[in-house]
Each structure stands twice: as C-alpha cells, then as structure tokens.
Design brief:
Layout: E1 2-6, H1 10-19, E2 34-39, E3 46-50, H2 52-62, H3 77-83, E4 88-91, H4 104-113, E5 117-120, H5 123-140, E6 144-145, H6 156-163, E7 169-175, H7 178-188, H8 193-202, H9 211-214, H10 217-230, E8 241-242, H11 250-258, E9 261-272, E10 275-286, E11 299-305, E12 311-315, H12 320-340
Parallel strand pairs: 1-2, 1-4, 4-5, 5-6, 8-10
Antiparallel strand pairs: 2-3, 7-9, 7-11, 9-10, 11-12
Helix pairs in contact: 1-12, 3-4, 4-5, 5-10, 7-8
The structure holds NADPH dihydro-nicotinamide-adenine-dinucleotide phosphate and the ligand N[C@@H](CC=O)C(=O)O.
NADPH dihydro-nicotinamide-adenine-dinucleotide phosphate is lined by residues 6-12, 39-43, 77, 92-95, 103, 121-122, 148, 152, 204-205, 207-208, 320, 323.
C-alpha cells in the first residue's frame, strides 16, 4: 500500500512506530507499507521512497527534516495530493475551525477526485464537508474513512456502519473531548485549568491550538461529525450551540463534587420536530450516571436508535496509540476490501 502522509505529528509518528516495528509483519491482517511522501507545515517535507523509521527518528531527534535531506521537497501538500503516486492519503493535520476544515478538506477532495482512498483522524473535514466528501468517494468508488476522528480509534463508526444497519439514530450524548475531561478532573483535585492544558499537551492529546479543546470547538466538531454521519444531518461546528469550560472555576467543580456530582462537558444531538438539535455544554452529572465514571482522557457515547435500546460505548484512558490504531484499522479495511476484490490496495 503506497501511502502519502499529510501531517506528521503525534498520531502519524505513533502510526509510523507501529508499522515499522519488527513485530508488524507477523500481526493479523498486515500489509506492506510504502511511504511516498511525508508533509508537515513548518518542519520540512519529503517526497520519494521515504524510509519511515529514519524519518520518524530524524523528526523526533531534531524537530525537522534536514534541509539537505535527499528527499526534501518544496512541493505543497495540495500539489502532493494531486501529483504523487499513492493509493491512500493519510490526512493527519490539525483541526481548523476558522478556516472551516481547510486546507484538509481540499487535500482530501483532490485525492478522492483522483480515485485515491483517504483515511483521516481530523474531525474537521467530517464536521464541515462530510456530504461532499462522502459523495465524491462514492462516485469514484473509493473509501473515505475517519474512525479516529471521534473517540480516538474506538470502533464507533465501524459499529454504526456494520452493526446498526437499518436503525435510525434518534439521539446521542457523550463526553468526547479528553482534554477538557482531564482538566475538570484535575480541577476536582484543586489544580488549575492551565496545568490541565499543559498535561494534555505533554500527553499529545490537546489540539495544536488548545483553545479548540477548552472553548468546546473540538466537542462541537465531533458533535457535528457524528450528527452528519449517524443522523444524516448537514450541520457544521458553527451550528452547534456551544459553551466550553473556560469560565468554569475550581470552586464550582469542587462544590459539585462535594454534593456528590461531577461537572462534565457533554456533547448532544437529538431529532426534534424534523430538525437535528446539537449542543456542547458543561453539565452536572449525578454519581450513579455512567458519565460520572469517565476519568481523565476517557470518553463515553450513549446512542439512542428507533429499533434498539440505548447503547453505551465507553473508552478508558485512551492515548495517542489508540488514535493511531484507529487509522491503522481504516487502512486494514481498505487493504482487506482490495484483497477481497483481488486487487492491489
Ligand atoms: N492526538 C490525539 O490524541 C488525537 C488527534 N486527533 C486528530 O488527529 C489529527 C492529528 O493530530 P496530532 O498528530 O495530535 O496533531 P499534531 O499537531 O501533533 O500534528 C499535526 C501535523 O500536521 C502538520 N500540518 C499542519 N498543517 C498542515 C497542512 N496544511 N498540510 C500538511 N500538514 C500540516 C503539522 O506540521 P507542523 O508540525 O510543521 O505544524 C504536524 O506535522 C488532528 O486533526 C487531531 O484533531 C484525533 C483524535 C485524537
Ligand atoms: N484534543 C482532542 C483529541 C482527540 O480528538 C481531545 O482532547 O479529545
């Protein structure tokens, strides 16, 4: 499988660590990986037959690709998506709110328009342009997969696609932003918002711009992405009613805790009178509510459908590895589909 990476940060480098590990070829469902390009915004980019393990080591050691690296290129990511020879675009650039998911949306669209598969963990394109990108993928007969964009690789979209066929999702509620959940837990212990942000940055979980976590934009993007994919909505993060945790004080968090309750940032969507209403807001959760058990970077999603009783998917303490695995699972899905059709990926 020839892969073009757009973005080589926390998630991409963890994925690189998995597929270059000596145990990789013996794992079930594996496939040979060839990397034809690695693009970053400010640390240099490579095009050609990239040695993934060496590229990762170089970036981790020096923070950039050496200007004399033989594969260094001045090509832009858009030019790469249009011109390089690859099977799958792995798009792992940061969430862009003000730019409405761009430039990732254009990079993905250009790959799909060329008949190339796309895998992303970036929720921006799903939140801002799901209908357009899914339609393009369908027309071109390729896959647009994004399992890691919500709940860090937990099999959420896979579950909905495979195991909820024919059900209509009527509503969902979830704790979907790990950074704010960990910050609220830290504040329960008397810590500050700033310390919580620093810890999430050190763990590689915070967004490149952590105000996107704190102000609820990441939650709004995940809410829009889920509503678009699971409920056939056509909303963007700007349509989601949103209140982040920026104005929540340690006193408020601790008062709730003393009363046996916890403050949580909850993402919601529901069908009401033909429309889909979406919100992200801080809620007080009772001690016997499963949402109250979600600690640190954990997540939970409760889905209501018309044919099944509510389902609850929980995830304990995901790390960047979980997100990298979700991307890998999408790649395996593409490799498996190609194998079943007797084609190269
Ligand atoms: N980290 C996590 O736990 C999770 C992350 N995600 C999502 O996955 C994506 C990647 O996350 P993560 O790896 O942590 O992010 P990082 O911020 O660590 O890395 C982002 C990478 O994208 C590069 N980049 C920025 N702009 C562009 C561009 N226009 N074209 C090509 N590359 C670009 C950056 O380059 P440079 O370093 O030069 O700026 C960097 O290499 C994000 O969308 C995030 O929301 C989803 C679930 C969990
Ligand atoms: N910043 C996000 C990372 C995953 O999407 C979070 O904190 O959940």
């Amino acid at each position: 499988m020839k892969i073009l990476f757009l973005g080589f940060g926390n998630v991409a480098r963890r994925l690189a660590a998995i597929v270059t590990d000596e145990g990789w070829p013996s794992r079930r469902g594996t496939f040979p990986v060839e990397v034809v390009g690695l693009f970053t915004a400010s640390r240099g980019s490579l095009a050609g037959a990239v040695d993934l393990a060496r590229a990762r080591a170089e970036l981790e050691a020096t923070g950039r690709f050496d200007a004399r690296h033989p594969l260094r290129t001045d090509m832009t990511p858009l030019e790469a998506s249009r011109n390089l020879d690859y099977d799958v675009l792995v798009e792992l650039s940061p969430l862009a709110i003000e730019a409405r998911g761009e430039p990732a949306v254009s990079h993905i669209a250009s790959a799909l328009a060329r008949g190339r598969h796309v895998v992303t963990a970036n929720k921006g394109p799903v939140a801002f342009a799901y209908r357009k990108l899914a339609a393009l993928a369908e027309t071109q007969g390729v896959r647009f997969l994004f399992e890691s964009s919500v709940m860090d690789g937990a099999p959420l979209f896979n579950m909905a696609r495979v195991a909820l066929r024919g059900c209509r999702v009527e509503a969902f509620a979830g704790i979907l932003n790990g950074t704010t959940n960990a910050i609220l837990c830290h504040m329960e212990r008397g810590g500050s918002l700033e310390e919580g942000i620093a810890a999430a940055q050190a763990a590689g979980i915070a967004e490149a711009d952590p105000s996107h976590d704190v102000d609820g934009w990441d939650g709004a993007a995940k809410t829009a992405a889920l509503a678009n994919v699971l409920m056939e909505a056509d909303v963007t993060p700007f349509d989601v009613e949103r209140r982040g945790i920026g104005s929540v004080s340690v006193g408020e968090v601790r008062r709730a805790l003393a009363a046996g309750r916890r403050l949580k940032l909850v993402c919601r969507a529901c069908r009401r009178e033909g429309a889909i209403q979406t919100s992200v807001a801080v809620e007080e959760v009772a001690a016997d509510d499963p949402f109250s058990l979600v600690d640190a970077y954990g997540a939970i999603l409760r889905i209501e459908t018309d044919l099944m009783h509510p389902l609850v998917l929980t995830q304990e303490g995901p790390e960047v590895m979980d997100t990298a695995y979700g991307v890998l699972n999408d790649l395996m899905e593409i490799a498996g589909t190609a194998e079943r059709k007797g084609e190269e990926p």
